[in-house]
Amino acid sequence: MSDLFEINNMAHCERCGTPVKVAGPQNSKAKMLRRSKKPKGLCVNCAVHDWLQNTYPVNMILAGSGPKALVHPHIQKQFTEIMRVGLADAKPDEINWDLIIENWDLPFKNKVKGTATNPASQAVLDREPAERARREARLKEEFEDPGRRQRELDDVINNEFLPLMQKLGNQE
């Protein structure tokens, strides 16, 4: 069966299994979402997700919040502009944002690697939801008791810093 797909320039997305077709000529200047020359690779929706996952700081934002922001038309419009500037082979109307969100938790073959332009490795992205929850809990605590943080700092100064300074002063 896979031979039949390959003969007809058809394949299945390597991530979600959606049938994909090698279609049309490629744009040699495309910097993102390039069409494959061979019947293999990712469907446009998984390719968009892959781009989002490997592009800093977008990947950090989505790692913390999840894909829910992608349903907003103004976010989709911004992505369309990124596609235009990136000379993408894919067209905005090919993207099914609902399907991207639905398949969000499907694994990718390759993990995200930190680079000079993307400091967020897969380990950093995996930690981000817990870090975001911790920051939100801290903000909630500060909102409910605005003086708490200052009291904590005062305690550190009075119980740790000043005694240490006194010891250093007595040594001279």
Q: Can you offer a commentary on this structure?
A:
- The chain is mainly α.
- The chain contains seven helices and two strands.
- The N terminus is likely disordered.
Characteristic terms for this protein:
single chain, 172 residues, mainly alpha, two-stranded antiparallel sheet, elongated
Total number of helical segments? Answer: 7
Mean pLDDT: 87
Distance between the first and last residues' Cα? 85 Å
In terms of structural class, how would the helical and strand content be classed?
Answer: mainly alpha
Strand order of the largest sheet: 1-2
Q: What sequence of helices (H) and strands (E) makes up the elements? A: HEEHHHHHH
Helix-residue proportion: 40-55%
In total, how many beta strands? 2
| Assembly state (oligomeric) | single chain
Topology of this protein?
Blueprint: H1 2-7, E1 10-12, E2 19-21, H2 44-53, H3 58-65, H4 73-85, H5 97-102, H6 122-144, H7 148-171
Antiparallel strand pairs: 1-2
Helix pairs in contact: 3-6
